[in-house]
């Protein structure tokens, strides 16, 4: 029998072709490509490179080992974009490709941190005609790891383009500070200003910055009005004074009403006594 000899380069080409076909299916993270992640979503390009079998993609919570999503993809050569939503912020997940129940490849990723909430201005208090104390509420959520900072902007009403700003950074040991969510604005002039605050959160691991919308701007003027916003204690004192004033007024009205009725009853008794005495005297004369 005559043996057919293949050229060396043909054998190499066949081996490379077979290896490439196997690598197309079994090579790690070849058919799972991460496109983009947010705090609650992850978008991938998925590919079922098998010729006839349906590919199964499973999204698993990497910490709790629970299935978050399960989808099937028809066999085809083109990549398909798919988005997994309702994910937890800053949580590790693993997306796995299975064919006939066998794990083909797997990729691990982490969602981004949740953007900080819009800061709420709690107090604007003028320390003097040129200085303003600003207090705001902590961001939500406060348990996220990262560096928080706040951008405070203020500008005159007459010139909105003349913008002033300051940045307050919250350190990891901010619990030792009496009031970390506050700042004193100085060098104010005698005019009306507007002020707004924005929250920033910097992810130190992935090196990106998240920020909230600006708070609703508030107007202030330290010359015209020294107390811009009343805090809770001032409101409580004001309500207490009003309540005590109303209570004292009611007590005074009750006292006046009681004394008036007592005076009327006494006067009526004296009149009857005088009439009886007058009648007795008249009878004695007769």
Automatic annotation (TrEMBL):
Membrane-spanning intervals of the chain: 235-258
Ranges in coiled-coil conformation: none
Signal peptide coordinates: 1-22
Keywords: Membrane, Signal, Transmembrane, Transmembrane helix
Record-linked InterPro entries: FN3_sf (IPR036116), Ig-like_fold (IPR013783)
Top-level division of the source organism's lineage: Eukaryota
Protein name in the entry: Fibronectin type-III domain-containing protein
Species the sequence originates in: Dermatophagoides farinae
């Amino acid at each position: 029998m005559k043996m057919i000899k293949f050229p060396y380069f043909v054998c190499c080409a066949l081996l490379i072709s077979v290896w490439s076909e196997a690598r197309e299916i079994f090579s790690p993270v070849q058919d799972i490509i991460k496109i983009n992640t947010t705090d609650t979503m992850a978008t991938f390009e998925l590919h079922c490179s098998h010729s006839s079998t349906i590919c199964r993609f499973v999204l698993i919570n990497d910490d709790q080992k629970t299935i978050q999503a399960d989808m099937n993809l028809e066999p085809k050569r083109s990549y398909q974009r798919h988005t997994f939503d309702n994910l937890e912020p800053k949580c590790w997940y693993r997306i796995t490709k299975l064919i006939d129940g066998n794990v083909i490849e797997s990729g691990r990723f982490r969602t981004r941190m949740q953007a900080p909430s819009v800061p709420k201005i709690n107090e604007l208090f003028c320390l003097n005609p040129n200085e303003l104390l600003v207090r705001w509420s902590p961001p939500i959520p406060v348990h996220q790891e990262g560096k928080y900072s706040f951008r405070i902007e203020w500008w005159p009403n007459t010139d909105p383009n003349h913008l002033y700003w300051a940045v307050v950074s919250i350190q990891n040991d901010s619990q030792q500070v009496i009031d970390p969510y506050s700042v004193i604005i100085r060098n104010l002039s005698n005019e009306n200003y507007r002020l707004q605050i924005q929250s920033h959160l910097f992810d130190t691991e992935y090196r990106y910055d998240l920020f909230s919308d600006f708070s609703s701007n508030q107007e202030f003027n330290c010359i015209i009005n020294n107390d811009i916003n009343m805090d809770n204690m001032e409101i409580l004192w004001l309500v207490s004074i009003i309540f005590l004033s109303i209570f004292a007024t009611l007590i005074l009205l009750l006292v006046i009403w009681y004394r008036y009725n007592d005076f009327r009853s006494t006067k009526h008794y004296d009149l009857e006594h005088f009439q009886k005495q007058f009648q007795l005297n008249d009878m004695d004369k007769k």
